Amino acid sequence: MSAPTALAPLTGVSALLDAVGADAPHLDVRAPSAATASFAWDAGTAPRQGEPAGDGPAVAVPRTVAEVQELVRLAARYGVSVVPRGAGTGLSGGAGAQADQLVISTDRLDRIVEVSPADEVAVVEPGVLNAALNDRLAPLGLFYAPDPASWRISTIGGNIATNAGGLRCAKYGVTRESVLALDIVLADGSLVSVGHRSIKGVTGLDLVSLFVGSEGVLGIVVGATVRIRPLPVARRTVTAFFASTAEGVTAIGAITASRVRPSVVEFLDEPTLVGIDAAQNSDLRARGAALLLIELDGFGIDEQTAELTAALEAAGARVRVESETDAEVFWELRRSGRRFDERSWFAGGDVAVPKSRIAEMFAGFSAIESRHGVEISAVAHAGDGNLHPVVTLPIPAGADPANPPAALHHAVDDIVRAALALGGTVSGEHGIGTVKRALAAEELADRVRAAQFAIKSALDPVGLFNPGKAL
Amino acid sequence: MSAPTALAPLTGVSALLDAVGADAPHLDVRAPSAATASFAWDAGTAPRQGEPAGDGPAVAVPRTVAEVQELVRLAARYGVSVVPRGAGTGLSGGAGAQADQLVISTDRLDRIVEVSPADEVAVVEPGVLNAALNDRLAPLGLFYAPDPASWRISTIGGNIATNAGGLRCAKYGVTRESVLALDIVLADGSLVSVGHRSIKGVTGLDLVSLFVGSEGVLGIVVGATVRIRPLPVARRTVTAFFASTAEGVTAIGAITASRVRPSVVEFLDEPTLVGIDAAQNSDLRARGAALLLIELDGFGIDEQTAELTAALEAAGARVRVESETDAEVFWELRRSGRRFDERSWFAGGDVAVPKSRIAEMFAGFSAIESRHGVEISAVAHAGDGNLHPVVTLPIPAGADPANPPAALHHAVDDIVRAALALGGTVSGEHGIGTVKRALAAEELADRVRAAQFAIKSALDPVGLFNPGKAL
């Protein structure tokens, strides 16, 4: 073991690296350096252009579950805390690590172990990309339902850690509803299997659901049995344009009051349409001041279309059933969205509210805009009350792009508090990570937080996994 | 406080009763006696005719959440463990209590607090009957999906405690998928709210899912916000009769391979059909040796029927789309089922296996029948691989009905072990309670059980709630 250096907090990491070099050279562990800087952040906390990046953490890229166990035991022995990491596409800082920590990356645990159409399950390692699983399933007429916006680049393991939502969860549920069983490495290095390959099962406490969405604070998921479904027999895209944001938001309630449950219900407000047109050279705003972009799927697609159209038209919409070609254009505009470039400061949100309160959320934006001198736009996964507001502010000439004014973040906080006041939540689907811990503390009662910490301590008594995150 | 009596274990209960009498006469707490004997068991552990029933536990029937808190604090103070109880319709002994315990019944916490079609939620107290909620929702065109066989007589709180399944969960999921938020009284008497009224939310660990199915060992659910859905636009019953149990079981895979996902897929094997005919004077066995009783719902009911019928006929079935009148007869026969009377010993099971292994489960029954000299029949919630086998044995003249031979229970154990060997689970939907604890220990690894106990201890350090159950 090397002598202590001036970097006291790194002693543990140095000792761990020495031990790996001496006794476990088969492990791929990279020392903290500028080369690991990107492991200090995720997609939500990456530095802006011009911001300095320091040394990153130590990074291990195990090839097997046994190597994950070995790394966890070494980290515990040398007192180095562990940050599990998938693709790093999270938006709340959950996968970011400091120089005195060890990242365990799931990059090389990327096998699709099995696809069983007869059991309606797939068995995967955590580093499998969501898109890779769906590419494998599609030729079999099957799909894996959770579809976070990051689905092309995010991993199943990361989706599980954050209980990722997405567009289709209005109909198919969030990640939790698609996970049947997990293999997990716990803080003592032991490997446990929880849950069932059967669709149902109630033996003991539901540890699968507890681990889904736990943001890596309870253990590392090293395997998952997920539920797969037959591809719908038909899909259809319906657009509904409205004369105003307010009118469009009200129409969301008309869908709820109908008997149709679309697979996707995306609401885009007026500034979002204007922003997309500017970025993509489209003409959405010319067609209306707000848009509900809806996908129906399944049997009886004509019946569904008729009932949905009637409900929307009664709410004042101009409704169109899109051709496949036009539908693809709309979904691509939705995915690519606005561009937030170096000319603006911006900050995003991820609140969810009870469905009947969506209108009040949008109606409250103008007061927050006035108070803080910012602009707010939002898209909403309207089928489940999940809004993604974006607060923007043009960067004046000469200002430092890396230092947005406090008003930007105060506006985000006000949006979150508005959601809480309406019976909503700090995070609909992105998770708490580091970014939303203070606001989560406003949402959760002290006794609830104490219960969460007690569970964390019960499973990870020394606080090895992802300290300072989620809870 | 009264002097200790000969009944040493009851000291705590006596002291608690004295304290209630002296300081809290508003609490309705009944002393252990023959009058509370029925609280010693549930529907799965009730004594047979002729079996003696001893004194039951102390029983409290609080009127308010505050009274529940008060009772929990009193129980903790006097060292009396608490058994939460809904309607007592459970089948695994989870709600049974001993003379030195305090039952807290949710009987009087039976208000439907709110129904919000716009938010797609209902807010209920735990003692609300599942049927009462659906009676309230039906005129609004809505329903609450979880439908355990006991739905007319079981409570939402009990359904939550056991994560109850039912027939429709093949399509709509089990109770967990319909619970958004819970109010819970913890072991220190504190009242906490966990979860969200919004459909989505990922703030901190998922305590809602942890409490669902926890069988009363972590706290008492005193309020629930559950998800409600629009009634399907159409329902249709399809029957498929087969020449043999084996042929019928194989056809289950044909449904899985199709793109139709029925709301209900019930499989009845040959001895079940014979038993129903004997009890109900029906003619099912004359129509075939095995039956798939299927309900389709939703849009495109004709398209669904056509695809399902084609899949089933290709698998050898005689398929009929039933009229509404005939459909009602079939569902009533399924619900009323066989009768198990005083002429037979019987014992039931609740295993679940991966869907592709259902055929092997049924094929394995004859060897177990031969080994133990019993008869086995089974119905299966085939859509999710959940079997309810029943082991029977005629009672010879002069034998004691209250003392079945060990062979009966050995046969049940062998069925469970067969399910485990096929990758299945001890309990698909009834829970562990007291009845299946030994078998659960065969399913779960020691490290998993240790993790479950650690979580129990974290939330209930003194073991106040439902000791000896579930874990």
UniProtKB/TrEMBL annotation, chains A, B:
This is FAD-linked oxidase C-terminal domain-containing protein. Keywords: FAD, Flavoprotein, Oxidoreductase. PROSITE patterns: FAD_PCMH (PS51387). Its cofactor is FAD. Transmembrane segments: none annotated. Residues 52-231 form the FAD-binding PCMH-type domain. PANTHER family: GLYCOLATE OXIDASE SUBUNIT GLCD (PTHR42934).
